[in-house]
Amino acid sequence: MPIVQHMDIFPIHVPVSSSLRSINFYLVQSGQSLILIDAGYNNDDCRKALVDTLKQNEFALKDLTHIILTHHHIDHAGLVNCLTAEHPIPVYAHPLSFPRLKRASVFLQMRIQFFQELYETMGCGQQGKKQIEHLKKTMKENESQKITAELVEVGENFGDHFEVLEVPGHAPDQIALYDRKQERLFAGDLLISHISSNALVEPDENGKRIPSLLIHIDSLKKCLSLSLEQVYSGHGKVIQQPKELIQKRLDGIEKKAERFLTLIKGGKRTANDIAETYYKDVYDQQFPLVMSEVIGHLDYLEQREKIQKEKVHGIWRYTSS
Ligand SMILES: [Zn+2]
Questions:
Q1: Mean pLDDT on 229-255
Q2: Long-range CB pairs of 282-290, under 8 A, 24+ apart, other chains included
Q3: Residues 160 and 92 both lie in one domain
Q4: What is the pLDDT of residues 297-306, one digit of tens each?
Q5: How far is the CA of 129 from the centre of ligand 1 (A)?
Q6: Which of 39, 85, 186, 192 sits CB 3.0–4.6 Å from 177 for a disulfide?
Q7: pLDDT category of residue 95 using cuts at 50, 70 and 90
């Protein structure tokens, strides 16, 4: 266990109009280090918020010693390129972040192939095809967003500042940084005060589907077992005494799974049928999120032996046990 330094936290909360409410990242001073945990979006609001927070606390950009990313998502890694171009410091992340942050083309091609097969086998038809076209387009458009900084693999401890915990589910590469002494956790998007986190369906490095919701549940349970006073999230408010909220999120998964089970018992057979029936307009608006939700909860019901699946003409059909 590391000898934990005294730490000062300077939160950077950038308000946004979406349901996320804010994009959060954190400056942490610990001993001689000034660590940036996550790096917001690559936009003026996030850049200004960081510069202002540095200035207000009598720091400058050149005082930053490390950047750590809780996961690879674009609203957590946005400023990395512009910060490290001006002030080259190492960027620490989980190894599973690397192909995603570097936008490795072999990996991205495989990922598109993965979603194509996934949506076909889940019965998504036209909507699935539309999403694949969108993925192909954004793969080209986002080429310029690849992280150019030197990436360093995080270990079990981050110096004598934090213990590093793997908390995959929302993203396969998600980590949380635990300050055991002061019972604080920087948890990325594992736990958000005002909304449940999406356990996004993703392939592993071999193109096999990761059971995102099942591992998200394990990550939440891992947090329940820690002594925790505060959780510093990627969005929304800092969470005080988080155990009740973690339990609420776990109960929420159980409840949603029960609703999907009722739909299956009522004759809905494919993930796509369940998604369209349950989410209505949101199905079109947020197709990839909705499919992740449905597929994740079907995994959960399968694991609990409440349903089984069978492939008929290339499409998974679910029935209650
Ligand atoms: Zn995220």
A1: 98
A2: 283/127, 284/127, 287/124, 287/127, 287/130, 287/131, 288/131, 288/200, 288/201, 289/198, 289/200
A3: yes
A4: 999 999 999 9
A5: 24
A6: 186
A7: very high
